[in-house]
Amino acid sequence: MLVGNPRPESRTHAVAARTARAIAPGTTPETVDLTELADRLFSRAPSPRLDDAVAKVSSADLLVVASPTYKGTYTGLLKAFLDRVPSLSGVTALPLLVMGSPRHALAVEVHLRPLLVELGASVPTPGLAVVESDLDRLDEVLAEWAATVRLPEAVW
Fold it and tell me: pTM of whole model > 0.90?
């Protein structure tokens, strides 16, 4: 999973982890948390950690891409990282946005999904928009969403 929240130990990270477990029960997802790489994203100096993160994301079979909603879309931190990813060809991506207001619910489909598709990812399911007021019933929200997800056999 790829988490684009600039805050460590964020709700976005927790929601992404629970989402990954809802889609692939019994697995522990590999995580690229951009809080750990933020200082390297705009540096010209080589960064093996950043290169490794790009390689992990680019070669994932299944990738939950999570961000808080910031000014009606995903974070600049997530965009800056994805700008370094040459391709998501062969990756099945599931877009996820955590938001304070349901008014931003379309952002996952209007902003994040097209970015992932532009990078070559297969995005076979509607993105997940989680409103903060639904966090107390997240298991129910995830169960409803996971029931609609139809992933290609190759990612299992």
Answer: yes
